[in-house]
């Protein structure tokens, strides 16, 4: 049985199992920007049923931070957390950055004394202090990963993916991998394997790309079919098995007519609200890889494609003119100043896409050609949510141990109060 078809069969069984679980929703829309809380001793997760966003926070004392600047410094400190990826079976990859922020009114002094010190309001004279975690959102167990050496070319990694592997082929995982191609070089992968407890560079068997343009990862990395899928929303996806001794890349171009011109993939000089990733997205739903895009002009046509089982070509499944759905008027999001943005693809119903308009969330059933909502956007509307599937065994399983040290280090982190607030 082909790999993608097998994945679909497993996913179907998982969906049936999830329908019997009443203690928590079958999946959550995880807010991407998350807190580091100085007032808590353990991780906290608030789960909500979609289309409401779920959020989380981790204890500040677990996050690596530098000394706080003194009261007379021109700098202040900010700790910013982000949900970067989901494993596809419930685990989340989190990244926290300890940033120095230029105080109001101090920019002129810093520009004079340190002309290359700032990017926007952030001071980048020193290396960022970055902490990376894997989180089980039901048990709240955290596993903190070792630091990446500063001599690595890539020391940030918001587009790292998280993939798990189970010895039995399904159920609770026995190991996990976190990986991303080196920036600007698809032939080298930076990865972390849980059983090795270290970051390493590994050579990748390259694939033939249709052109010489640079591929830039600009969407969260997906876990699907035993591979990680790294997405350039302007061109296509490359996938690889990060557990392999020498991962082999495979490239799939976006559907015909969806590839944007070379040069736009960096998003340089583009306002955040106008970036291409707001209007197109690759995701996983019902055991298949999907691509959804919405046009930028009236009548705001939304198109949905599915990748074939061989991972080669796309098939158009839906095409819906959004403006016609609300042509009768009376909707609170009208008149629209610009195209709705794509929030995410429902992981359990490939007909459903979540759209955002300003501070509102709309739920579109492409098969029924119906829109429900609006619902208030309970997350940060500037950042998309991450879909997180919550299988029935997740609440009783542990994160695979990171070497022998991690099992001892995290012994106390798993024994925390599990709380799920479901409106």
**Given the C-alpha coordinates, what overall shape results?**
globular
Distance between the termini: 41 Å
- How many runs of DSSP E, i.e. beta strands? 27
Strand content: 35-45%
Question: How would you sum up this structure in a few lines?
Answer:
The longest helix is centred in the first third of the chain and has 16 residues, at 3-18. It is globular and about 55 Å long.
What can you tell me about this protein's structure?
The protein has four helices and 27 strands. It is mainly beta. The chain has three domains: 31-145 and 392-423, no CATH class; 157-266, no CATH class; 271-381, no CATH class. The strands form five sheets. Strands 1, 2, 3, 4, 5, 6, 7, 8, 9, 10 and 27 form an eleven-stranded mixed β-sheet that branches. It is globular, with a radius of gyration of 21 Å. The two termini are 41 Å apart. Mean pLDDT is 83; it is low at 1-22, 114-119, 151-155 and 404-423.
Features:
DUF1618 domain-containing protein; 27 strands; mainly beta; 3 domains; 423 residues; four-stranded antiparallel sheet; disordered C terminus; globular; single chain; disordered N terminus; 4 helices; DUF1618
Please give the structural blueprint.
Layout: H1 3-18, E1 27-30, E2 33-37, E3 44-46, E4 53-59, E5 75-86, E6 92-102, H2 107-113, E7 118-119, E8 122-123, E9 129-135, E10 142-144, E11 161-165, E12 175-182, E13 185-193, E14 198-203, E15 222-224, E16 227-232, E17 236-240, E18 250-253, E19 280-285, E20 288-294, E21 301-307, E22 314-321, H3 322-325, E23 341-345, E24 352-357, E25 360-365, E26 370-376, E27 386-389, H4 403-409
Parallel strand pairs: 1-4, 2-4
Antiparallel strand pairs: 1-27, 2-5, 3-4, 5-6, 6-8, 6-9, 7-8, 9-10, 11-12, 12-13, 13-14, 15-16, 16-17, 17-18, 19-20, 20-21, 21-22, 23-24, 24-25, 25-26
């Amino acid at each position: 049985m082909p790999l993608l078809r097998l994945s679909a069969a497993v996913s179907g069984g998982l969906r049936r199992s999830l329908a019997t679980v009443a203690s928590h929703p079958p999946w959550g829309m995880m807010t991407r920007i998350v807190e580091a809380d100085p007032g808590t001793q353990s991780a906290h997760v608030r789960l909500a049923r979609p289309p409401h966003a779920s959020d989380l926070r981790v204890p500040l004392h677990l996050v690596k931070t530098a000394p706080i600047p003194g009261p007379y410094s021109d700098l202040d400190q900010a700790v910013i957390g982000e949900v970067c990826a989901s494993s596809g079976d419930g685990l989340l990859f989190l990244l926290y950055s300890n940033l120095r922020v230029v105080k109001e009114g101090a920019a002129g002094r810093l520009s004079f004394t340190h002309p290359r010190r700032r990017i926007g309001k952030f001071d980048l004279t020193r290396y960022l202090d970055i902490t990376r975690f894997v989180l089980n959102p039901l048990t709240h167990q955290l596993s903190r990963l070792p630091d990446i050496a500063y001599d690595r070319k890539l020391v940030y990694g918001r587009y790292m993916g998280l993939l798990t592997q189970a010895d039995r082929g399904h159920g609770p995982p026995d190991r996990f991998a976190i990986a991303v191609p080196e920036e600007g070089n698809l032939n080298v992968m930076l990865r972390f394997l849980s059983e090795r407890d270290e970051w390493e560079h590994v050579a990748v068997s390259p694939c033939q790309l249709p052109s010489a343009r640079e591929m830039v990862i600009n969407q969260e990395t997906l876990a699907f079919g035993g591979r990680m899928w790294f997405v350039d929303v302007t061109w296509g996806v490359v996938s690889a098995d990060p557990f392999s001794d020498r991962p082999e890349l495979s490239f799939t171009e976006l559907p015909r007519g969806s590839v944007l011109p070379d040069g736009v993939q960096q998003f340089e000089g583009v306002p955040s609200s106008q970036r291409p990733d707001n209007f197109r997205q690759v995701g996983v739903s019902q055991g298949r890889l999907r691509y959804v895009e919405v046009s930028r002009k009236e009548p705001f046509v939304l198109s949905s494609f599915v990748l074939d089982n061989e991972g080669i070509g796309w098939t158009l499944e839906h095409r819906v003119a959004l403006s016609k759905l609300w042509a009768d008027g009376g909707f609170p999001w009208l008149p629209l100043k610009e195209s709705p943005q794509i929030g995410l693809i429902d992981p359990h119903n490939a007909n459903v896409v979540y759209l955002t308009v300003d501070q509102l969330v709309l739920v579109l059933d492409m098969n029924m050609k119906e829109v429900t909502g609006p619902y208030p956007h309970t997350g940060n509307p500037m950042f998309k949510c991450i879909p997180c599937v919550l299988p029935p065994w997740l609440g009783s399983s542990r994160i695979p141990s990171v070497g022998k040290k991690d099992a001892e280090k995290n012994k106390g982190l798993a024994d925390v109060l599990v709380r799920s607030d479901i409106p």
